[in-house]
Amino acid sequence: PPAEERTARAADQAIDAPAPSLFTGKRKLALGLAGGGLLVLVGGAILGTQASGLESEAFALCPDSGAPCPDATAANDRLASARSRALVADVAYGVGAAAIVGATVLWFTGAPARPSSVAVAPRIRPGYAGLAVQVRF
Q1: pLDDT (tens digit, 9 = 90+) per residue, 90-109?
Q2: What is the pTM of this model?
Q3: What would the pLDDT profile of 37-74 be if each residue is shown by its tens digit?
Q4: Contact 117, 27 (CB under 8 A)
Q5: Average pLDDT value for the chain
Q6: Confidence band of 19 (pLDDT split at 50, 70, 90)
Q7: Can you tell me the distance from the alpha carbon of 21 to that of 112, in angstroms, rounded to the nearest whole number?
Q8: CA distances for 81 relative to 53, 62, 67, angstroms
Q9: Cα angle vertex 4, ends 10, 134, to 5°?
Q10: Residues 6+ positions from 32 with CB-CB distance below 8 Å
Q11: d(CA 53, CA 45)
């Protein structure tokens, strides 16, 4: 084929190049981090619910009536367990939220690079002469 046809075909191939994949390495990591963050948040919610239940059990064993409580040891054990689970739940909420924020940052900074290019191809045919120009940015 003549040189101008080869040049036109090469320019058409450059113009029709496929777009880069949406899922870059950073974005795949962001999805994994977001999934892990959601799991940690769910774990924190479960622990928080358990802590609330243990606290309710403790208050049921020893209502605040001013009288001595015969089950004070069991109530105090439940309160200690409730506080421990609540602390772990609070840490899980923080870790999960940080993971989701980190995943969001990774997602937006991991966008695929869009190649900037200018393609110019001469178009010469019988009775026609011109240029095909495409700019990507």
Answers
A1: 999 999 999 999 999 999 99
A2: 0.68
A3: 999 999 999 999 999 999 999 999 988 777 888 889 99
A4: no
A5: 86
A6: low
A7: 7
A8: 10, 16, 24
A9: 50
A10: none
A11: 12
Q: Which tokens is 35 given?
A: 């999934």
**Amino acid residing at 91:** V
The string of DSSP codes covering the chain is --HHHHHHHHHHHHHTPPPPPS--HHHHHHHHHHHHHHHHHHHHHHHHHHHHHHHHHHHHHS-SSSSPPTTHHHHHHHHHHHHHHHHHHHHHHHHHHHHHHHHHHHHHHTPPPPPPEEEEEEEEETTEEEEEEEEE-
- Residue 56 is predicted with a pLDDT of 95
Q: Which two tokens stand for residue 90?
A: 């609070």
Angstrom distance (rounded) from CA 120 to CA 49 = 64
d(CA 79, CA 81): 5
Give buried/exposed letters for 95-106 (b at 16+ CB in 10 A, else e).
Answer: bbeebbeebeeb
